[in-house]
Structure formats: structure tokens, C-alpha cells
Amino acid sequence: MPDGPGNVPDGLLPGGDLRAVRRRIQNALVVSQILGGLGVATAVALAPVLAEAIGGSEAVAGLASTSSVIGTALLSLPFAALMARRGRRVGLVTAYAVAAVGGLVVVAAATAGNFPLLLVGMAAFGAGTSANLQARFAAADLAEPAHRARAISTVVWATTIGAVLGPNIAAPAGRSVAGLGVPEAAGPFLWGAGVFLVAGLVMQVMLRPDPLLTARALARASGAEEGSGAERSLRAGLAAVAASPSARVALTAIAGSHTVMVSVMVMTPVDLGGHGAGVQLIGLVISGHILGMYAFSPVMGALADRVGRLGVLLTGVALLACATALAGTANGHHAQSAAGLFLLGLGWSAGLVAGSALLTDSVPQPARAAVQGLSDLIMNSAAGIGGALSGLVVAQAGYGWLNVLAAALLVPVAVLTLLSLTRRRKVTARQRQ
Hints:
80% of the residues lie in helices and 0% in strands. The protein is mainly alpha-helical.
């Protein structure tokens, strides 16, 4: 695929202007990310409240969010397989449609008081998060390799807008269903379903030409080896990861960063509440965490393109280590907890952006969609396990030990990244001789 900004063969792109196509695709993805982030954030905060009301016990309140995480993980592979065969547009539109159906199922479950149906709906609702995650890879399909991390980070950054606005419209969304026989806590899911439908429509109309299919066409036109359909299968994706040390480093970094972030984040409100923090203060701390996750992703992308993916991955490890140290030793000092959670989000941003760019760099173009779906499956599965176990750790040993164990997960990430960086420097030194 041509990496430069120049023209491409006639017939492949409108006017042969690759730069214009890149801008149009990025704009479409940014709009979809704002909407997707809005759809998730509007509803997901009230999922535990809804689960407790239907299930009749605090013990089952966390199962709704857990079902959403599991749905995100399990749906990553079929969506990735669909994208590998049919392109990004079909895959993303389908994901948003499934999420919209999930939202409607949640509303139906809430109205009927059916707890198992609620969990099914939440799992399908997780498709919205899956779509948001896959969109970052769509931004990388046609990006120049030297600017790939920046393209990914721009799309990740757009989630900030929806994530900030979402919780603020949850209350009016709940009030809007008054008189319809729908529980107030289910109102945001009805709105979320509508937002996901709009996001899918945006993808259907604006994501043209399809970035993945266009990247493959440009690869064929430039004489690069495109490969057969079999080389786009999930089995081929596994083989591509097994053959690439850099891809294994990237997968480890993405999964490790995400697991550390989720494991600490989900139990922080409990720790804050146990030390006297009110709902408003807890909300401010979590808002600062979300700001760290998304708002500074363009900085991480620019650094990853300029100083290298591995350097930013190590920076992310350092930030996450500092975050666990601050949060784990706060002991009721709320400002210290807030600083720790902000750094937790910042470290996650570094790991996700640099890791996603490194993963895309490290595997052949035909296998990328499958490998990227595998990455989302692994990161969400690991985080789901981490989030589920974090409550047990806090109950048995305390929040401080949770942070110690989370920091221990960073050790393999740091070791693999340092080994990869050392190998790369040795190769560079030999080439200079």
C-alpha cells in the first residue's frame, strides 16, 4: 500500500486523492466514536442500579456490568471475522445494530422484571463498546505508518466527548420514560439504543470508501502480496501473532494495561466510600480518571509516532505503577486517590494507543483484522476476570493489596517490552556497522 500522500492508480479512489479519503474516514470515525461513547456512558452507569432493582439484591448488582464486559469480549471475534470478510463498514454497522437491540432487550427485561433477560440484553449492549474499540483500528487501515499512532489516538480521543456528556443526560433520559410503564433506570438504555442506531447510520453513509477494503486494493495495486481469504481467518491471525515477537509484546501490553486499569478502577469507588467520600466526590474522581483515559490520547499518539511505540509502552507501565502506588497507599486521602486514578487513565491511554499501533505494524495486512479482533477478545476477557476477582481481593486482603497485585501484572509487560527494545537496538547497531 502506498504510504505517502501522493496520488494512487485511477479507479481505486475518488480523484485518486488518498489524503482526502483519509480525512473523510477519520471524520466519520470521530463522529461515530462521539455517538458510541455517548450511547455507552448514558446507560452503563445505571446498570448496577437496574440489576439490583430487578434482582432484588445488592449481591447481583455487579452482574449487569459483568455481562456487558463478557459480551464485549465474546462479540469481538465474530465482528472481527465479519470485518475481515466484508470490511469495516459492515462490521461496525452490525455491531452498533446489535448494541441497539441489546438496549431494547434491557428495556423489555426491566419492564417485565426478568433478570436473566436483563443479562442477555447487557451482553448484547456490550457490542457498542466492541464497535468503539474496533473503530480505532479502522483509523489505522489507511494511515501512513509514520502517523498511525496519531490516527488511532484521534479516534480514541473522540470518545471523551460522549463519555463526558453521557452521564449528564442519564437523568433526563430516565424521566423521559415516565408514564410509559418503563422503570426510570431503564430510560437511558432506550436512549442508548437510539444513539447506537444513529451511529450505525453514520457508518453506513459516511464510511466510504471502506478503509480496510481500500487498503487491500491499494496493496494489490502497489504489488504487495495481498494473500488469500484463508489468510484473513482467525486461525491465520493466531499464526501471525505467533510468528511476530513484536505482536506478542503489543498484545501483552494492551491486555496488561487494560486489566490493571479495570481491576483498580472498579473498586476505587468502594474504597472511597469506605473512607467517607460522598457520591459527588466519587463522581469527580472517576471523571478525572476518564479524562486521563481519553483526553490526552493525541499526546500519546504523537509520542508513539515520534519516539517509538516501545518507549511509550514503557512510559505507560511507569504511569500505571505510579498510579497503583498512589491509589493503594491513599488510605482516605482523597486528593491522592484522585491523582492515582488520573494517572491510571493516563497509563491506560499510553498502553492502548502505542500497543494498538505496534500490533498493526507487526502483522501482515491480510491478517490485521483478525489479529485486532483477537486483541480485543484477550484484553476484555482478561479485564473481565480482573474486575471479577478484584472484589474478592478487596474483601479478603484490602484495597492496598489489590493495587500491589495489579502492579505485579505490569512486570511481564515491562520485561517483554525491554527485551524487545534491546533486540531492536542491537539490530540497529549491527546495521550501522
